[in-house]
Design a protein that fits this description.
By secondary structure, the chain is of the alpha/beta class. The protein is built from 15 helices and seven strands. The structure holds NADP nicotinamide-adenine-dinucleotide phosphate (NAP). The site of NADP nicotinamide-adenine-dinucleotide phosphate has 30 residues, from strand 2, helix 4 and helix 15.
């Protein structure tokens, strides 16, 4: 069986990839994680053909160790933890190290390159998309004779509706696994390809309508001016974009505040700069894909109740709960 290194395999997007590799019976997955003992790491280590390797995305020795000896790689660096500057550097270094270690097929988990799509208008620049956009452009520009390279570009996760926000074009993360397997197994088509995936492209009005149709519950879409929304929604006043990574996350002049990051995010999706997805192509690649927001809501039993999707946010909540528990115990 071919071994595939998965970076970000305990995360929302990487989990379905690890599951798809494991279930295929044709691959083994080696998952890079900082913490072998986390709940998600322990859960995936129980899957067949899955092993864990301890290390960090922002450590070059760890990257060498992680890529050594694998046939393929699926790489989702975490811009929210690393920050824009580090994601750019380690995004490129991961690719270079993979080539050094002789990896044969490299799938990079990309995002729409927003400031480029918006003709370099800085009002549409935000860190966690553009770093990946730059890395994708660079690695696709190289020759693919030594190592095949494919880019799988997702938009906002449909699943983020569980986590309080979401907009066009949404991807059900579950399907990222099948698209990734297709890339590994169809190199003549996938080499050099940037496949931009989505499940459904929907407006907020439509989200409200579908929600009522599926759950019978009332839903309204109300327009709120962006500045008003940003001030109300930021985790705390002037929070950095990588606030969920905790106080020790790398921060400097290049680090955006949450508002600076998510202002352009909303403008970009709202003003329709992103490239339309080719749904006919996606149907051909993955005929059993989840085809609509309605289908996804029925499949996952969506009822509007929030639940964590991102591991980063889940980890932060666990730390906060532990602190609250400790201070309650101290007071009583
Ligand atoms: N949210 C969205 O709608 C969306 C849409 C498209 C793309 N994205 C992109 O997806 C990325 C985040 O992935 P996700 O959505 O799967 O988030 P997530 O659920 O929070 O998972 C983060 C993943 O990154 C890993 N990680 C973080 N820092 C690491 C480090 N220093 N070394 C090794 N592993 C590290 C975590 O592994 P351990 O904790 O096990 O070490 C975990 O697997 C971001 O760059 C974001 O821009 C997000």
């Amino acid at each position: 069986m071919r071994e595939v290194l998965v970076i970000g395999g305990t995360g929302a997007q990487g989990l379905p990839v690890v599951k798809a590799l494991s279930q295929s019976g044709r691959y083994t997955a080696r998952v890079l994680t900082r913490n072998l003992g986390s709940k998600r790491a322990r859960e995936i280590s129980k899957l067949s053909n899955v092993t864990l390797i301890q290390g960090s995305q922002d450590n070059q020795k760890d990257l060498h160790k992680a890529f050594k000896g694998v046939w393929g790689a699926w790489v989702n660096t975490d811009g929210f933890t690393l920050g824009e500057k580090n994601e750019l550097f380690y995004g490129i270094r991961a690719y270079e190290i993979a080539r050094h270690e002789g990896v044969q097929h490299y799938i990079y988990a990309g995002t729409d390159y927003a400031v480029k799509d918006a003709d370099w208008d800085a009002n549409f620049h935000w860190g966690h998309n553009d770093a990946k956009g730059r890395v994708a452009d660079l690695i696709l520009s190289h020759k693919h004779d030594g190592m095949k390279v494919s880019v799988l570009t997702t938009g906002p996760y449909m699943d983020m509706l569980f986590d309080e926000r979401g907009k066009i074009p949404l991807i059900a993360v579950e399907d990222v696994g099948a698209y990734s397997l297709w890339m590994f197994e169809n190199p003549s088509e996938s080499t050099g390809l940037q496949l931009k995936v989505a499940t459904d492209a929907v407006t907020f009005e439509e989200i409200a309508g579908v929600f009522t149709k599926v759950t019978g519950k009332k839903a309204v879409h109300e327009y709120v001016p962006l500045e008003q929304y940003l001030l109300a929604a930021e985790p705390y006043p002037d929070a950095p974009a990588n606030w969920a990574a905790g106080p020790d996350a790398p921060r400097d002049e290049s680090t955006m505040t949450w508002r600076e990051n998510f202002g352009p995010w909303w403008r970009y999706w709202g003003e329709g700069f992103c490239e339309n997805r080719d749904f006919a192509l996606l149907d051909r690649i993955h005929p059993k894909r989840i085809k609509s927001l309605e289908e996804w809501m029925r499949l996952v039993g969506y009822n509007g109740q929030a639940k964590p999707v991102l591991k980063g946010a889940e980890d932060l909540r666990a730390v906060q709960q532990a602190i609250e528990k400790a201070s309650t115990a101290h007071m009583s």
